[in-house]
Amino acid sequence: MKRGRGLILLLVAMCAALGCTQYRPAKVILFVGDGMGLAQREAARLAAYGPAGRLAMDQLDQISLITTYSASALTTDSAAGATSWATGHKTTNKFLSVGPDSVSLKTILEYARDAGYGTGLVTSTTLSHATPAAFAAHVSDRGAEAQIAEQLLATHAQVMLGGGRAFWNPRSAPGSQRQDERDLLAEARAAGYEVVQNAAELARIDLRQPHRLLGLFADGHLPFRYDRQNDQVPELAAMTRTAIEILDHQERGFFLMVEGGRIDHACHDNDANRAIWEAIAFDEAVAEGIAYARRKNDTLVIVVADHETGGMSVSTGCYSGFPRIPRQGAFPEHGLRLDSLLCISWTTKGHSGIPVIAGALGPGSQHFRGIKENIDLFPIMMETLALQP
Question: Which of 64, 70, 72, 78 is catalytic?
């Protein structure tokens, strides 16, 4: 086995030196800050590092402005927004990787899987929530999470980490949200997945070996970082690091989507404290991807939002001069009223239709210039992975 893997690596190196592409390792890590507009990024930067500081995602110097409208509305929802990246097609709000006619659209994760790449989905929401689901499920109702969980399992992504255990457990299990007795966790184990359900179990994974890994760390969404009382739920950065190290065993390359999904939820509540802490946690996950990409030189890292949530703004009207935010390391002190310190205001509890920023580095990042449609990310990622639709 080791001799075979060494031969493959030698062929990959020789082919890369000769300029051929069929054996060129290629990787894409798509980071999605759900609901994260420019104001959410700026608030996180100011809270964590101050006016002169920089987030990890600020290292991505290839930048585009991305329009976000869906096939049915000027203001997209997360399902249609994620479908645009996953398939290269706009669709109706609440639809997941089906067109407005409800016909299934093949996703980049499915193309990558069929071509022998590693594939992964990581999120702080339920795995069956709109953004991760768009890469592996095909339904006309994003709310059908029990059905989506079945499709996630059937798609066989190599690594899946997030919440939503209630949609995988049989109806008779405490807290289950299923209407039948299917035990998807048992089915996952039978299909070869190692199943983990807390941070300690995740930390014990032997990353020196390839895995098929399913991690479900809460019945519903993972708790907001601001509210966490213990370390039983892994941080998004730890899940990202684990997924990358497992997928790195794939000589062909991999596609990985990582979502900071609870930024959106906090912004729906106009809750600046939780939104900012979620954005900082998301940025730590981005830092893991950037560090990997800089080591490998074969990885396209993209950071984008599906839409902005809350119509958030950051101003100086609440104070004179710069806000002085007490910090504990890289974090604002717990319990601070960041909404007052940063003079944050809101215009809605829903989504807004304004464009969002996409930043990129690595092979393919040169395409991230000017104004683009959200569907334009799909062909860029497909080209980077040398995939043909």
Answer: 78
- Provide the CATH number for the domain around residue 355: 3.40.720.10
Domain that includes residue 50, residue range: 27-384
Cβ count within 10 A of residue 200: 11
Q: What is the mean pLDDT of residues 278-292?
A: 98
Position 145 pLDDT exceeds 90: yes
233, 221 contact by CB (below 8 A): no
CA distance 284 to 165: 25
Give the Cα separation of 234 and 49 in Å (integer). Answer: 23
* Cβ contact 321:276 at 8 Å: no
Instruction: Describe the crossing of helices 236-247 and 272-296 by its angle, rounded to 10 degrees.
Output: 20
Residue 82 lies in a domain: yes
| Six-digit token string for 96 | 């997941």
Cα–Cα distance between 22 and 27 in angstroms, integer? Answer: 14
Query: What is the end-to-end Cα distance of the chain in Å, rounded?
Result: 32
What is the Cα–Cα distance from 311 to 123, expressed in whole angstroms?
Answer: 23
- State CA 107 to chain mean position distance: 15
Please spell the DSSP secondary structure of 283-335, one letter per residue.
Answer: HHHHHHHHHHHHHHS-EEEEEE-S-EES--EE-STTSSSS----EETTEEPTT
Tell me, what's the pLDDT at 24? 66
**How much is the pTM?**
0.93
Q: Is 78 assigned a catalytic role?
A: yes
Least reliable range by pLDDT among 204-213, 259-268, 272-281: 204-213
**Cross-strand bridge partners of residue 304:** 32
In a domain, 3, yes or no: no
Contact status, residue 267 vs residue 305, Cβ threshold 8 Å: no
- Write out the two tokens for 166: 């209630």
E-strand stretches of 127-171? 159-163
- Looking at the DSSP bridge assignments, the partners of residue 351 are 309
d(CA 250, CA 118): 6
For residue 301, being part of any structural domain is answered with yes
Residue 18 lies in a domain: no
Number of separate domains in the chain: 1
What is the total residue count of the chain? Answer: 389
